[in-house]
């Protein structure tokens, strides 16, 4: 019995120890402030940018688009403890989209007076934009700043201070009030309190005036300069509990900016008082409810941010706030949320032949229609379609067996008009498990399909331009049984399809390799990408068509 009570007492002591120290365990540096990963792909080069304010060289990682056409520029800002060498999760998608990119240093980690929202930081970000525009094929009207955590703070600082007419600012889990965050970090026993102290104070006494001076919440809002820019504020509802920045930072900066647009006042206390009766703003009751529940029982299930539920969405003019199911983070699909003007004014007739990725709502054909609003696109894609197999025993899904009928039907719909482009994107379903032993037939079927297309009168009468888009990759794990091993088969198949297509004078677009690094988070089932991922495919088709128009 004595032994039992001794063991019981030990369990109680251990429990009390864990309980009393839980806040220390839970408040480790968040993953988004991880500075240990510094490996960059060879496509990104280190550049030196002389500072316009003090002449010091500020390094950055930069990627220049390989396109012949003007492309957007993404200015990605590192986190609180990071610098330009910190690995950026956006880089895989930058390569996939082939957008211009720069990842500047702006005085490195936020633990010294030259960093942390200083005048040097503001100048360095503007210098990085100017350098990238000069040294890449950037469309100067498509410059976009994005940052998470400390990068979110820097994004807000840029919104309030830089002169360049940036099109969009995306601040994820941002800090907006350094004084508030100092005391929050003291309470959480996090290193950030000491970092802020070293940034704003010359001694051990916290300089709250300097902290407020560097806080976007209290800075002058350049309304006229930003009237054509958009600010997107994103915050995970659990941040502050399983992250380092309470959601009040995002709510307060939204209220401050939207409130100034509505009432012409900048005092956050006055604006928050007005929020009690103004549905354009976030009330104290809504704020407290989100802080305590970390959930909104009245949220609309259809209101989602890719795969995340949205518990609060507010927008006034060009300022937008989104509180979503998540923590201290930037979702992987962040670049897919940035609005880019990507349309081309081209009147032409296009025939598209694909599988479910072309047939589904928001698939690559739908994205192409959005990008080419004046084009007449005849889509003969179908879920389950193959190059040359009767998928699921259905002959109508066999493109080779039905290609003449498909082309005859398209010709009738054109009513004598030219077919300017035929775009073919097939092969995913040909690599299903059921066809694993027939991969040699895929090559034969593909060559026969291309041959039939080139023999048809729709091609000869119109001098149609032909485009082959490779099948996209698929996930290798957590995928439907019928697709197991499919990506491995695609790795072998895609180069062969590309070679044959080129031999038949098709323009070839490789989407398989660029999408490998991002398929997992754009395709929930590992096969079918959401609209943001499908848009990448459409963008590559647009580039090819635009090049042919030159």
From TrEMBL:
Residues crossing the lipid bilayer are none
InterPro entries from the xrefs? Answer: AB_hydrolase_fold, Ester_Hydrolysis_Enzymes, Peptidase_S9_cat, SGNH_hydro, SGNH_hydro_sf
Please name the SUPFAM superfamilies in this protein's record: alpha/beta-Hydrolases, SGNH hydrolase
Q: Which residues form a coiled coil?
A: none
Query: Which Pfam families does this chain map to?
Result: Lipase_GDSL_2, Peptidase_S9
**Peptidase S9 prolyl oligopeptidase catalytic domain residues:** 97-257
**Which residues belong to any copy of the SGNH hydrolase-type esterase domain?**
357-535
What name goes with this protein?
A: G-D-S-L family lipolytic protein
Q: Which organism is it from?
A: Flavobacterium pokkalii
């Amino acid at each position: 019995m004595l032994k039992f009570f001794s063991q019981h007492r030990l369990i109680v002591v251990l429990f009390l120890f864990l309980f009393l120290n839980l806040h220390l365990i839970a408040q480790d540096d968040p993953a988004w402030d991880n500075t240990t990963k510094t490996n960059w792909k060879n496509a990104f080069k280190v550049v030196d940018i002389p500072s316009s304010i003090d002449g010091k060289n500020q390094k950055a990682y930069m990627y220049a688009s390989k396109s012949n056409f003007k492309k957007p520029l993404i200015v990605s800002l590192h986190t609180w403890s990071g610098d330009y060498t910190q690995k950026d999760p956006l880089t895989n998608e930058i390569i996939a989209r082939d957008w211009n990119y720069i990842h500047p240093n702006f005085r490195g980690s936020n633990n010294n007076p030259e960093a942390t929202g200083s005048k040097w930081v503001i100048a360095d970000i503007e210098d990085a934009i100017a350098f990238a525009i000069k040294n890449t094929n950037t469309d100067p009207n498509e410059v976009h700043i994005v940052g998470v955590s400390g990068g979110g703070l820097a994004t807000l600082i840029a919104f309030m201070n830089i002169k360049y007419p940036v099109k969009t600012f995306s601040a994820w889990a941002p800090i907006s009030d350094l004084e508030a965050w100092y005391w929050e970090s003291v309470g959480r026993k996090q290193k950030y309190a000491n970092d802020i102290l070293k940034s704003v104070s010359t001694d051990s006494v916290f300089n709250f005036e300097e902290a407020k001076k560097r806080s976007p919440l209290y800075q002058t809002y350049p309304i006229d300069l930003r009237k054509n820019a958009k600010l997107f504020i994103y915050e995970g509802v659990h941040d502050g509990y399983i992250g380092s920045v309470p959601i009040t930072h995002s709510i307060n900066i939204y209220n401050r900016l939207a409130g100034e647009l509505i009432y012409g006042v900048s005092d956050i206390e006055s604006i928050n008082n007005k929020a009690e009766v103004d549905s354009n703003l976030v009330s104290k009751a809504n704020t407290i409810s989100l802080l305590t529940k970390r959930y909104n029982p009245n949220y609309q299930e259809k209101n989602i941010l890719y795969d995340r539920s949205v518990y609060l969405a507010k927008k006034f003019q060009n300022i937008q706030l989104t509180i979503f199911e998540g923590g201290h983070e930037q979702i992987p699909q962040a670049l897919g949320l940035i609005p880019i003007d990507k349309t081309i004014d081209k009147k032409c007739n296009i025939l598209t032949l694909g599988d479910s990725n072309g047939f589904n709502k928001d698939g690559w054909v739908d994205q192409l229609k959005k990008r080419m609003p004046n084009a007449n696109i005849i889509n003969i894609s179908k879920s389950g379609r193959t190059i040359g197999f009767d998928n699921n025993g259905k002959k109508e899904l066999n493109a080779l067996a039905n290609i003449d009928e498909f082309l005859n039907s398209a010709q009738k719909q054109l009513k004598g008009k030219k077919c300017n482009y035929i775009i073919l994107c097939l092969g995913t379903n040909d690599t299903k498990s059921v066809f694993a032993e027939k991969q040699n037939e895929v090559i034969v079927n593909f060559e026969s399909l291309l041959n039939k297309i080139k023999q048809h009168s729709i091609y000869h009468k119109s001098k149609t331009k032909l485009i082959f888009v490779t099948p996209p990759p698929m996930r290798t794990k957590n995928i439907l049984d019928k697709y197991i091993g499919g990506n491995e088969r695609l790795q072998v198949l895609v180069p062969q399809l590309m070679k044959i297509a080129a031999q038949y004078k098709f323009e070839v677009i490789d989407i398989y390799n660029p999408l490998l690094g991002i398929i997992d988070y754009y395709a929930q089932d590992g096969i079918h990408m959401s609209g943001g991922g499908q848009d990448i495919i459409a963008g590559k088709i647009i580039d090819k068509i635009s090049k042919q128009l030159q």
